[in-house]
Amino acid sequence: MYLDTGNRATPNPVPSERTRILFVAARPALIAPVRRAVKADGTASFRLCAEAGDAAAAAVRCGADAILLDPALSGRATRQLVETLRADPATRGIAVVVLGDRSGQRTQGVVQRAGADGATASPGRPGLLDAIRDFVRTRRSACAA
Q1: For the whole model, what pTM was predicted?
Q2: Quick check: 23 and 49 in contact, CB under 8 A?
Q3: Which among 21, 26, 83, 100 could bridge 70 via Cys, Cβ 3.0 to 4.6 Å?
Q4: Which residues are CB-neighbours of 71 under 8 A, at least 6 positions away?
């Protein structure tokens, strides 16, 4: 289920503009900390998607620069999402980032198995949005080459 009514269908052309993040959350408890981090940063916007199966279409609708994934999503759902995004030229440039967990071990396993761009710090730690922006720049560079 896509929870936003945004209708932007083009990727953000200028990285210095607000970074548009689509968060695919399997655990409602993670929504508030991510939303707080985005609000405190002031240079990003946040949309929520409750189902991994809807994320590719939702990312196109809101013009997402990055999709932030809850590490609790099933590995299969995460892999399918990454494969769908990479197969479509319209979404190939969207960075896919797994939200870090406290230990980092589970997160790195999800990243490696799914082929995501990388992982961030957990939502309560500093640097969440800086890491997401770094992954966005790296993904755009790779797609432009």
Answers
A1: 0.81
A2: yes
A3: 26
A4: 98, 99, 100, 101, 106, 107, 110, 119
Chain centroid, CA 35 distance in Å: 13
Q: Residue 106 belongs to what domain range?
A: 19-144
* Residues 105, 80: Cα–Cα separation, whole Å: 21
Bridge partners, 14 (sequence order): none
Asked if residue 133 is part of any domain, the answer here is yes
Q: How far apart are CA 121 and CA 127, in angstroms?
A: 7
Q: What is the CATH number of the domain that holds 24?
A: 3.40.50.2300
Q: How much of the chain exceeds pLDDT 70, in percent? A: 81
13 within some domain: no
The H or E element containing residue 87 is helix 75-87
